[in-house]
Amino acid sequence: MEREVSGEKKKKFAADTSGRTPGDWVKALLVLLAGLTIAHLGVTLFLLSELGTDTFTVFIQGLSVVFGLTVGTVHVIVLCILMAVMLLTTKGYVKPGTVVCAFCGGPIIDLFTWILGDYINGNSGMALRVVSMLAGCVILALGMSVVINSNAGTGPNDLVAVILSDKIEAVEFRWIRVCCDLFFVALGFVLGGTVGAGTIAAVFLTGPLVQFWLPVTARWIKIK
Questions:
Q1: What is the pTM of this model?
Q2: Could you give the CA distance from residue 34 to residue 118 in angstroms, rounded to a whole number?
Q3: What total of structural domains would you count in the chain?
Q4: Adjacent-strand bridge partners of 2
Q5: CA distance 102 to 155
Q6: Is residue 13 part of a domain?
Q7: How far apart are CA 132 and CA 217, in angstroms?
Q8: Cβ neighbours around 219 below 10 Å, total
Q9: Do the domain assignments include residue 3?
């Protein structure tokens, strides 16, 4: 289903996958894993630059300060809560790939950190760190668009903007994503999370970049 937004058709993200065969699901999940790997390469480059934490992690950090739990523990708890709420209140968004995104991102980041950590870190030159941060935003957005276009599910935190974009007819996805990121950053900062220059850049770059990549990767991905 499509809607008119600013003179252009706005396509819904929710998709009916009930007709997929097991083979279709294997293809979709492989595409999702490829997108997830690309996205978390971007996250790793962003984090290694040490110019700020990504927007959702600021929120998680703030909660960890309030409740006295580790960032990793809070991350898993929050993602599980988000998945449960979305399963109960929405239809067509939480799919097998949502679980994959929730629990596979950490190990992928650890792998890329092990590979790249000696070359890009807080002791690197500022020019390299800035390039790493900006490249991370671009690559993250590319990977996210692949994950979304796989129609196999996406991470619970990313689903917040996706669902709101489908519900709020008059606003483009990029601006909804910017608002969601601003919300996570502001609340996380108030709770005690860490905000840096890279965090602010991620707030205003991620949404527009994902919207740029979505039609591009949609042409590459042909899955039922």
A1: 0.85
A2: 24
A3: 1
A4: 11
A5: 6
A6: no
A7: 23
A8: 8
A9: no
